[in-house]
Design brief:
alpha/beta, six-stranded parallel sheet, 35% helix, binds zinc ion
Length: 248
């Protein structure tokens, strides 16, 4: 029933936006940071503090390489990522605002992706601010340095102690103002300020579809209108069935 309702809401929307968090990438083998089995049980989050990184780039980079390049680098998108990309291709979705830094939306074919927390797929030189694809950077010798000026390279996602980049923040909040439908996938509303986006969309009159395994803050706070309680890939497959589309 909820899936039929969700399908109707998607068909009726004029401007739908996806909003995703760690839960959509779990089935691609990327563990979440928080909670049981999360990365912060295995690694010290202090390594991703900006001041720690600046003071001791060698030790931070060793862990960064292991988590975000050796490990994330091997992950591939799943049916939930592909589903959002397909909805966009069909003109049923404007794009995705994601808190993830794993590039899996783009790998799945999504074109409009607002990376609220940045991306591991790019690096920025802290001296000259030049950005380059991470694939072009040699990570054999750490820390990696800028080929133009020799400055220290940092992954272009936000560390603890850094603000949301202005450009993506602006674009995301603009999208939120315009949207009449939000599809939340795998995000439980605990990370500030990203967690404010669905509530803001709701205040602006958008209908909120939520895909999560467990009831989240959005459900508890009455933000969610249609709750699809399933794993991300299961939910996306059922949603496509309700939309009478081939499985993503
Ligand atoms: Zn540089």
């Amino acid at each position: 029933m909820a899936y039929q309702q969700a399908a109707e809401a998607i068909r009726a929307a004029t401007r739908a936006v996806g909003f995703t968090g760690a839960g959509i990438s779990v089935e691609s083998g990327i563990p979440p940071f928080r909670g049981e089995g999360g990365l912060w049980n295995r690694y010290d989050p202090a390594l991703l503090q900006l001041d720690h990184f600046l003071a001791s780039p060698d030790s931070s980079w060793k862990v960064i390489r292991e988590i975000f390049y050796d490990f994330f680098g091997a992950a591939v998108p799943n049916a939930a990522h592909r589903g959002l990309a397909e909805l966009e291709r069909l003109g049923l979705l404007q794009g995705v605002i994601t808190q993830n830094i794993d590039n899996l939306h783009q790998d799945a074919g999504s074109r409009t992706v607002h990376e609220f927390h940045g991306t591991a797929g790019r690096m920025i030189c802290l001296a000259c601010r030049e950005k380059r694809p991470s694939g072009e950077v040699d990570l054999q010798r750490l820390p990696p340095t800028c080929p133009l000026c020799g400055g220290l390279l940092k992954p272009d996602f936000i560390f603890f102690g850094e603000g949301i980049p202005e450009e993506v923040s602006k674009a995301s909040f603009h999208e939120t103002e315009l949207a009449d439908l939000f599809i939340l996938v795998g995000t439980t509303g605990e990370v500030m300020p990203a967690c404010l986006i669905p509530s803001l969309a709701k205040q602006n009159g958008a209908t909120i579809i939520e895909i999560n395994v467990e009831t989240s803050n959005y459900g508890r706070q009455g933000v969610t209108d249609i709750f699809l309680q399933d794993k991300a890939t299961t939910a996306m497959n059922k949603l496509f069935e309700a939309l009478e589309l081939p499985p993503p």
